[in-house]
Amino acid sequence: MYSERVHIRVEPEPDQITRFSRTRVQCEALTLCFYVSADGYYEEWMYECVYSASDYSDMVYLESYSFNKVVHVQCNSTVGKCVGYTDQGVKYAENFNKNQAFMQQLKARVDTVCRPNAQNSDSAVRDKSVQPKITLKSVKQAGGSQTSILMCSAYDFYPKKIKVSWLRDGKEVTSDVTSTMEMADGDWYYQIHSELEYTPKSGEKISCVVEHASSTKPIITDWDPSLPESERNKIAIGASGLVLGIIIAAAGLIYYKKKSSGRILVPN
């Protein structure tokens, strides 16, 4: 099952904005709220929904207050109380914990705030999937008794979780395999690379197997050891040039014959 740690920041309610400050408010919905005073001090309320399970069973609502980037107090819906981290924060926490109405609202926000936002976020982004583009190539050609290295790469896939494995004559290879971690491209997509070091044998079949949420069955790519891709490209280019040369030669011969048939030979 695919899961990832997710943070959702939500907009505070109007009554919460004025709880600690009456200064001008600069607020961005679903992110952070800053309380800006004229002399440049900042007060901040942060609202977070944290979860990793796709069914939201471990979802936690966190509410924290900071002043000049120092966290004074944090309230946790699962624990059901607030904790102070500074002298002033301890006083805030004591007052919050005594406020039964506030504590009930804190516990309820998993269902009233977090879950609806998480469902909207997941349906728009996390539940989408993009099938990876697979390439399989040799990065070190075998020479005599030397080993060869194959590299299987998966590009432009989403979500992040993926499994790359190798088959040799239908059996999974568990040794001489090295793989990178999933690497973010910076555009929501990921890539991963896996290498297999092996000694080629005549008639064997080697395959790269990719398992991903975007496909209901493993994506299997077989290795063709006949010729490396660069050599196949050279042959294709050479064959194209040969065919083009034959066509030009044939056209020249036809033209020459037509010109020759129209001439009258005069004996000396």
If you had to describe this structure to a student in words, what would you say it looks like?
- With 268 residues, the chain is an alpha+beta fold.
- Helix content is 28%, strand content 35%.
- The protein contains 4 helices and 16 strands.
- The protein has helices spanning 14-17, 87-98, 100-126, 229-261; strands at residues 6-9, 24-27, 33-36, 42-51, 60-67, 70-76, 81-84, 133-140, 148-157, 162-168, 171-172, 177-179, 183-184, 190-198, 206-212, 219-222.
- The strands form 3 sheets. Strands 1, 2, 3, 4, 5, 6 and 7 form a 7-stranded antiparallel sheet that branches. Strands 8, 9, 12, 13 and 14 form a 5-stranded antiparallel sheet that branches.
- The longest helix has 33 residues, at 229-261.
- The termini are far apart.
- Mean pLDDT is 78; it is low at 1-34.
The gist of it:
With 268 residues, the protein is an alpha+beta fold. The chain has four helices and 16 strands.
Which structural class do the helices and strands define? alpha+beta
Percent of residues in β-strands: 25-35%
Distance between the ends: 96 Å
Tell me the total number of β-strands. Answer: 16
Gyration radius from CA atoms, angstroms: 34 Å
SSE ordering:
EHEEEEEEHHEEEEEEEEEH
- Helix fraction, binned, reads 25-40%
Pick out its properties:
35% strand, elongated, 28% helix, 268 residues, alpha+beta
